[in-house]
Design a protein that fits this description.
The protein is an alpha+beta fold. It has helices at about 10-20, 90-100, 180-185, 195-205, 275-280; strands at about 55, 60-65, 75-80, 80-85, 125-130, 145-150, 230, 235, 265-270, 300-305, 325-330, 335-340, 340-345. The protein has one domain (about 10-25, about 55-345): paralog of FGE (formylglycine-generating enzyme), CATH 3.90.1580. A hairpin with a 3-residue loop joins strand 7 (about 230) and strand 8 (about 235). Bound molecules: calcium ion (2 copies). The site of one calcium ion has 8 residues, from loops.
Length: about 350
């Protein structure tokens, strides 16, 4: 059983699967057309605005988790203080960014035919990965049983063209690639958190525990994060109240005032992913390795993601546990992947 986080495949893999077999990917990362808006044209938001952010005083902490090969060894890290969004970036917030800049997310851009040799042009429809509950219990070794590349799925249409975000303004924005998240952060005068900042903030000063909230899965019998209950991926019993993403702030904040650091949606960090990084990590404000490498998908550029999502449980994708690491291909989004931002002290 896959206990680790094969929570989704790279977007390019999903595209290849849906478009047919026997086609080999020659380029590694599937690229989309470059956004019409270059970063130089994006308008920076109000300088110094920390509305909706929490000040995280710097300090030292124990980073990592011995349970996972790529988060060993436990090591001491020190981070400087920073501001952090109290909650994941919402649909309403992302909509303001798009309205101000005309930004087109990766999932909305035309696919580059050069990345899909042999695939008819009319099959190359922009879209993104959407989780689908399976009809019955399945072997957990193949994520493509529950991940589908859905043409037309993007942040405005989280489950596909027929879905919308109307009435979901306070839900976290999803189908966001690393590039999209970084573009939003730049516009907002912020940046993505480093992996170390993210984990330090998630601990909330409580130290390194099994879960960011402590040692018990259900403190006082209560679910305290939006994760997954029941049988994955065929039967979600929704004991925590939400089958998919929940409005931000639906569960208790941590001692720093941060919501949904555990679960709800995965959150991009600014660090490239390497499974061996902790062996060599600097102790002071680490920012990740200089390059990316994932032995499971060599040649695919990946960034770190943190915190798990509404699809995580002790049965599958246990990387919502404290100190564990997620990863994702740079151009890929999905309906359980979003982000939050940080900013430095002025
Ligand atoms: Ca849930
Ligand atoms: Ca989260």
């Amino acid at each position: 059983m896959y206990r680790f986080c094969h929570y989704k495949s790279s977007q390019w893999l999903l595209i290849f699967v849906i478009l047919g077999t026997g086609i080999s990917c020659t380029t590694g990362n599937a690229s989309r057309e470059t956004a019409k808006e270059t970063t130089s044209t994006l308008v920076r938001a109000v300088t110094g605005d920390t509305t909706g952010m929490v000040w995280i005083g710097g300090g030292s902490f124990t980073m990592g988790n011995d349970e996972f090969p790529d988060s060993r060894p436990l090591h001491q890290v020190q981070v400087d203080g920073f501001w952090m969004d109290a909650h994941e970036v919402t649909n309403a917030e992302f909509a303001r960014f798009v309205e101000a800049t005309g930004y087109l997310t990766v999932a909305e851009r035309p696919l580059n035919p050069a990345d899909f040799p042999g695939v008819p042009a009319d099959k190359l429809v922009p879209g993104s990965a959407v989780f689908t509950t399976t009809a019955q219990k399945v072997n957990l070794s193949n994520p493509l049983q529950w991940w589908t590349y859905v043409p037309g799925a993007n942040w405005r249409h989280p489950e596909g063209p027929q879905s919308s975000i109307e009435g979901k303004e306070n839900l976290p924005v999803v189908h966001i690639s690393h590039e999209d998240a970084a573009a939003y952060a730049k516009w907002a005068g912020k940046r993505l958190p480093t992996e170390a900042e993210w984990e330090y903030a998630a601990q909330g000063g409580r130290g390194n525990h099994t879960y960011y909230w402590g040692e018990e899965l259900k403190p006082k019998g209560q679910w305290v994060a939006n994760i997954y209950q029941g049988s994955f991926p065929d039967r979600n019993t929704v004991e925590d109240g939400h089958a998919g993403a929940a409005p931000v702030g639906s569960y208790p904040a941590n001692p720093y005032g941060l919501y949904d650091m555990d679960g709800n949606v995965w959150e991009w960090c600014s660090d490239l992913y390497r499974p061996d990084y902790y062996m060599n990590s600097v102790k002071q404000n680490p920012t990740g390795p200089a390059d990316s490498y994932d032995p499971e998908e060599p040649g695919v550029v990946k960034y770190v993601q943190r915190g798990g999502s509404f699809l995580c449980s002790d049965e599958y994708c246990i990387r919502y546990k404290a100190g564990s690491r997620g990863k994702g291909e740079v151009s890929s989004g999905s309906n359980n992947l979003g982000f939050r931002c940080v900013r430095d002290k002025d």
